[in-house]
């Protein structure tokens, strides 16, 4: 009975007290109707609040039910993760590394132990032999044999339970919330590790962590940028760009494919063979892990009233469904949405051709025959088989058979499918076959017809919904057009009184899908645009230190910049036309006045920094470019896009209050300005640069922004940052204005 006493309070049932609250009928913790007192949950969770006096790294679980003999040795990975995150915000990099590494290690251990326990217990408590005290072989018919059957089941459960208990401690310890699961699925720990390793100068580890994170988050702009930086750094090797979470079977498959496309067939075959071995190992593990808790999936387990065999059926169908899904799970490449189609069979397709090219006809025949197990009518493969057999000799070819391990795999998979289809027909438990190779007759006739009808209905509904959506879109667009015309007409003249002649408000914050944003056109003339672009190029050539250098943000671009102070100095030295320097200076004043007036400020703005910047695409470095010209950031805080947060602390320029970018040209490709959400990914508005156009915006977290890659030509703009705090005024303005000198005097 020991087993049941532990089972009652074991993991499997506890989370349900909280989890399916969606149904609205779950009692709260401590509710007298709850099947278990609320504190059980806390007691069994790794909750330091429950054990305030206990040191965090020594756990001895005070379980009131059945004291486990072995002390717990494995710290729960969600706790380690939280500790790591906390350390990150305290800048305690060593602690970040310690906790995150341990969290990853422990999570992997939990997974491994669970799989191993289930596999070895399956072996130890096999059916088919005589069972103690029953005296008859199992399985058999009759109540005595039933007893024997369930004796096996109980032994198996006891075996798995003690195995896990011994190695992991109480199972509830390693249960984590969905959020934590998501963090690990997104490989977030590697994001923290990347920073921590970088901070303590362990570049190789930082690179590996960054790369590992990026594999699972290929749209993550900042990490892409980081990786570009790392690539340019001295001391970073190509081998450092590892994927620490790569699954062996997939890595080998991809390597095999790479050699295959390079026509290195010998090496390709070697890697595909390893990939197949690893696939079957991973498949066993994946299937063992399916034998977990029943997922009520939104149903109220308290209303669940299935009898013994219904309950077993429900759970077992779920397990089988999960096992079938392993075919997809294993075919998924990290960071990709779609699994490789026909994954396992394709190995044998690659292999047969690789062996043929290496003149290994016996192996080639073996692999064709193995492939044909999946797709017996494949024309090309049958032709290949005929050809290889002719080359090798028909008699010899006859003796070669398909691989046993694959025969077994298919046999088991077909049995699973048949059971699942039976469950589908008899109990309506849905099953969608993930494989493309399943013979048609595995699915029962009645189901096939039903599914056909359902598919047609689904297609019809999809079409109807599509039409409806189109109608709605058209309606919304018409509405929007009306209202945007209105805002232009109403908002422009009254709310923007102080604008200079010829300047017009092209888009208000509303049209730019945000707040504290404005787009103006006609801020300067074509001639002025050209003059400033020349100024930038002249300064880059003549002024030391301003020669075009590799962009700090992108390896695909050259970058040159000149500040107002530098322009004025170069002007005084006769290296650039004084008139152009003056234009730069005057224009900055004009922009300042416009911002003050447009945003209705009642205290003046001060220049914080002004920069004339040109970025030029490097022609030979544009292939497959996916980075940004300037990564998404916020001007006055540190954007932490993973957390949708922006921290207003140094080294961010926290004193910046308003920003403006004035464009000088549009004869280049790419280089559009974007506003995004705090996630640095979701673009909310896009602005195409052109001469005289200016985007002005608040420098705070309401306005994350960046610049898309410039892929051809040169893009020039004046970037201006303003502060409300006179203490942070840019030096040139203090020199030229505040000392009582008329700035015209300087020039
Ligand atoms: C199953 O048990 C037998 C005998 O105890 C052992 O030889 C075999 O390696 C085991 N297989 C697995 C998969 O553990
Ligand atoms: C604002 O959002 C709408 C809807 O997503 C989009 O069509 C429009 O282009 C956005 N505005 C700008 C300036 O990008």
From TrEMBL:
Residues making up the signal peptide according to the UniProt record: 1-24
PROSITE patterns hit by this protein: FE2OG_OXY
Top-level taxon of origin: Eukaryota
Cellular component, GO, one term: endoplasmic reticulum
Cofactors required: Fe cation; L-ascorbate
GO molecular function annotations of the record: iron ion binding; L-ascorbic acid binding; procollagen-proline 3-dioxygenase activity
Gene3D superfamilies, alphabetized: q2cbj1_9rhob like domain (2.60.120.620), Tetratricopeptide repeat domain (1.25.40.10)
Domain Fe2OG dioxygenase: 610-724
Keywords: Dioxygenase, Endoplasmic reticulum, Glycoprotein, Iron, Metal-binding, Oxidoreductase, Repeat, Signal, TPR repeat, Vitamin C
Pfam families, A to Z: 2OG-FeII_Oxy_3, TPR_leprecan
InterPro entries linked: Leprecan_dom (IPR056585), Oxoglu/Fe-dep_dioxygenase_dom (IPR005123), P3H (IPR039575), Pro_4_hyd_alph (IPR006620), Pro_4_hyd_alph_FE2OG_OXY (IPR044862), TPR-like_helical_dom_sf (IPR011990)
EC number: 1.14.11.7
A biological process term (GO) from this entry: collagen metabolic process
Broadest EC class assigned to this enzyme: oxidoreductase
Family the UniProt entry places it in: Belongs to the leprecan family.
Protein name: procollagen-proline 3-dioxygenase
Species this chain originates from: Mola mola
């Amino acid at each position: 009975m020991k087993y049941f006493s532990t089972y009652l309070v074991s993991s499997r049932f506890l989370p349900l007290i909280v989890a399916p609250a969606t149904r609205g009928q779950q009692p709260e913790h401590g509710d007298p109707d709850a099947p278990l007192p609320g504190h059980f949950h806390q007691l069994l969770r790794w909750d330091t609040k429950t054990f305030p006096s206990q040191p965090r790294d020594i756990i001895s679980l005070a379980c009131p039910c059945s004291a486990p003999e072995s002390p717990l040795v494995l710290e729960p990975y969600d706790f380690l993760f939280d500790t790591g995150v906390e350390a990150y915000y305290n800048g305690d990099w060593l602690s970040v590394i310690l906790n995150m590494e341990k969290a990853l290690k422990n999570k992997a251990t939990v997974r491994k132990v669970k799989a191993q326990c289930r596999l070895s217990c399956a072996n130890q408590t096999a059916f088919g032999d005589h069972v103690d005290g029953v005296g008859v072989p199992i399985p058999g018919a009759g109540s005595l044999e039933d007893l024997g059957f369930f004796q096996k089941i109980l032994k198996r459960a006891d075996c798995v339970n003690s195995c896990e208990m011994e190695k992991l401690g109480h199972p509830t310890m390693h249960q984590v919330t969905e959020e934590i699961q998501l963090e690990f699925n997104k490989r977030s720990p590697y994001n923290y590790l990347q920073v921590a390793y970088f901070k303590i100068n362990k570049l190789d580890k930082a690179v590996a962590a960054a790369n590992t994170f990026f594999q699972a988050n290929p749209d993550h702009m900042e990490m892409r940028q980081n990786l570009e930086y790392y690539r340019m750094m001295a001391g970073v090797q190509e081998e450092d760009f590892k994927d620490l979470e790569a699954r062996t079977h997939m890595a080998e498959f991809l390597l095999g494919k790479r050699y295959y496309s390079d026509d290195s067939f010998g090496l390709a075959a070697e890697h595909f063979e390893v990939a197949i071995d690893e696939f079957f190992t991973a498949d066993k593990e994946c299937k063992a892990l399916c034998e977990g808790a029943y997922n009520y999936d939104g149903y109220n387990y308290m209303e669940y009233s299935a009898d013994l065999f219904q309950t077993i059926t429900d759970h077992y169908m779920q397990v089988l469904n999960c096992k079938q899904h392993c075919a997809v799970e294993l075919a998924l490449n990290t960071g990709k949405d779609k699994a490789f189609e026909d994954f396992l069979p394709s190995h044998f397709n690659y292999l047969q051709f690789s062996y043929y090219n290496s003149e290994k006809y016996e192996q080639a025949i073996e692999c064709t025959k193995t492939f044909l197990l999946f797709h017996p009518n494949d024309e090309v493969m049958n032709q290949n088989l005929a050809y290889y057999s002719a080359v090798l000799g028909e008699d010899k070819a006859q003796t070669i058979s398909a691989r046993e391990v694959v025969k077994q795999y298919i046999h088991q998979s077909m049995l699973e499918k048949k059971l699942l289809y039976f469950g589908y027909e008899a109990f309506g438990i849905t099953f969608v076959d993930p494989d493309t190779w399943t013979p048609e007759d595995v699915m029962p006739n009645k189901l096939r017809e039903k599914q056909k009808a359902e598919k047609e209905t689904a297609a019809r509904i999809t079409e109807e919904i599509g039409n409806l959506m189109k109608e709605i879109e058209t309606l919304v667009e018409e509405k929007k057009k009306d209202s945007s015309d209105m805002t232009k007409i109403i908002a422009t003249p009254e709310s923007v009184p102080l604008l200079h002649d010829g300047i017009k408000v092209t888009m208000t914050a509303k049209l730019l899908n945000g707040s504290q944003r404005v787009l103006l056109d006609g801020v300067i003339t074509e001639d002025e645009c050209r003059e400033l672009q020349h100024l930038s190029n002249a300064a880059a050539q003549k002024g030391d230190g301003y020669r075009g250098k590799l962009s700090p943000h992108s390896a695909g671009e050259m970058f040159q910049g000149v500040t107002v102070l530098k322009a004025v100095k170069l002007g005084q030295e006769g290296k650039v036309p004084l008139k152009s320097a003056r234009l730069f200076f005057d224009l900055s004043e004009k922009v300042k006045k416009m911002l003050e007036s447009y945003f209705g400020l009642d205290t003046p703005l001060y220049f914080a920094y002004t920069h004339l910047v040109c970025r030029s695409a490097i022609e030979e470095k544009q292939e497959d470019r996916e980075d940004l010209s300037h990564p998404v950031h916020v001007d006055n805080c540190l954007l932490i896009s993973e957390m949708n947060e922006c921290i207003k602390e140094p080294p961010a320029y926290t004193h910046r209050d308003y920003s403006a970018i004035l464009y000088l040209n549009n004869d280049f490709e790419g280089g559009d300005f974007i506003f995004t959400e705090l996630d640095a990914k979701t673009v909310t508005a896009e602005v195409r640069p052109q001469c005289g156009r200016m985007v002005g915006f608040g420098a705070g977290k309401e306005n994350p922004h960046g610049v898309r890659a410039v892929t051809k030509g040169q893009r020039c703009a004046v970037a201006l940052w303003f502060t409300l705090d006179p203490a942070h005024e840019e030096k040139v303005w203090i020199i030229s204005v505040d000392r009582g000198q008329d700035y015209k005097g300087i020039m």
